[in-house]
Amino acid sequence: MGVNEGSYEILENGAGKFKIEIDGCPTASANVESITIEDLVVDEREMTTGADWDYRVYGPGDAHYGTIRVRARVGRNSTELYQWWLDCSQGKNIRKNMSVIALKRDGTEARRWNIFECFPITWDPGDFSPTSNVACETIVAKMGRVELA
């Protein structure tokens, strides 16, 4: 796992470094090539009362979760991500949970991120890459909340 200059956490599925589980999307889950997760932003709020003019006290405020970008190989039967996006774009409120699992070299689970209430905001059919002979689709979903298990 690495962190790029834009402060995004990027997982690339080179040699089985991670796997993802998307509720109701077993085919897409098995074909994920990369995931990009935006940073969590926590607002700050002032906690100082009106009588405190010598100093200010700040505390944590609301948490704002970003988006998760999932890039998956497209196969003959890979319509799960597109169908999820299409249903939501037609007004259905379908939220799915995802789990991103980082793996150790031996294939056992090292760390798990549970991402709840994901809602797709964009879907890109992608293009066919002649160098890898693979077509990939990308879906970007807004995260509801994240839990490190």
Q: Examine the secondary-structure arrangement and name the CATH architecture.
A: Roll
- Number of structurally distinct domains: 1
**General form:** elongated
Instruction: Report the uncertain regions.
Output: 1-10
- Beta-strand percentage? over 45%
Mean pLDDT: 81
N→C terminal distance: 17 Å
Main β sheet profile: 10 strands, antiparallel
H and E string: EEEHEEEEHEEEEE
Rounded radius of gyration (Å): 19 Å
CATH class: Mainly Beta
> Could you say which structural class the secondary elements and strand pairing correspond to?
mainly beta
- The total of helices stands at 2
What is the CATH topology assignment? Pnp Oxidase, Chain A
Describe this protein's structure:
The protein is built from two helices and twelve strands; from the N terminus they run βββαββββαβββββ. The chain is mainly beta and 149 residues long. The protein has one domain (2-43, 57-148): Pnp Oxidase, Chain A (Roll), CATH 2.30.110. Strands 1, 2, 3, 4, 7, 8, 9, 10, 11 and 12 form a ten-stranded antiparallel β-sheet that branches. A two-stranded antiparallel sheet has the order 5-6. A hairpin with a 5-residue loop joins strand 1 and strand 2 (9-12). The radius of gyration is 19 Å and the shape is elongated.
